[in-house]
Amino acid sequence: MIFLELFWTFFKIGLFTFGGGYAMIPLIQQEVLSKSWIEEGMLYNFIGISEATPGPIAINMATFVGSTVGKMGGSALLGSIVATLGVVLPSFVIIIIIAALLKNFSKSKAVKNVLGGIKPVVIGLILGAGALLVYSNLFQEKFDYVSLIMMIAIAACAFVYKKITKKDLSPIIMILISSGFGMIVYSVF
């Protein structure tokens, strides 16, 4: 029964979220915490790990949460598969339907207006997820000066690199530098 509930929960998240994985974070947080499947601190850890691992964040989050919840039902692997299929299936079906109908509706003013109205909502959801991550990293229990200094230092380094070289720093390099810097700083402090 837990696997069916897990599938349905992530299916709803995948079906009703526009804007990609970061826009799904608030829904995942609400659903998972309201069902007491995992604790809030573990959810924040899953968000961090999902950002650092290859692949879309929503799929990674579904896999990690599914694994944890699946253990309650006796199979972490089955939980991972069910949650991942649940979050991916709506997008897959919708994309197939849209691709089939796109030729007829791509120039429709109504479709353009709907998509234009969705953009600000997506931006708000992504900013909300970012604010949640900053808040959880800096203000949970006590103010975390180390995290604040690390975020500012990494952003400043990326900015200086771009100004000097006139090139963007690869996201992969940024993740590697950030994770290495974090391991060094947190092993010292």
Write a structural description:
The protein has helices spanning 2-16, 21-34, 40-52, 57-73, 76-105, 109-138, 145-165, 171-188. The chain contains eight helices and no strands. Helix 1 (2-16) packs antiparallel against helix 4. Helix content is 84%, strand content 0%. With 189 residues, it is mostly helical. The model has no long low-confidence stretch (mean pLDDT 82).
Topology overview:
Layout: H1 2-16, H2 21-34, H3 40-52, H4 57-73, H5 76-105, H6 109-138, H7 145-165, H8 171-188
Helix pairs in contact: 1-2, 1-4, 1-5, 2-4, 2-6, 3-4, 4-5, 7-8
Task: Label this structure with key terms.
189 residues, mainly alpha, 2 domains, 84% helix, globular
Based on Cα principal axes, name the global outline: globular
Query: Which value, in Å, is the CA radius of gyration?
Result: 19 Å
Q: What is the total domain count? A: 2
Number of helices: 8
- Helix % is over 70%
Backbone structural class: mainly alpha
| Proportion in β-strands | under 5%
**What's the oligomerization state?**
single chain
In terms of per-residue confidence, which ranges show pLDDT below 50 for 5 or more consecutive residues? Answer: none
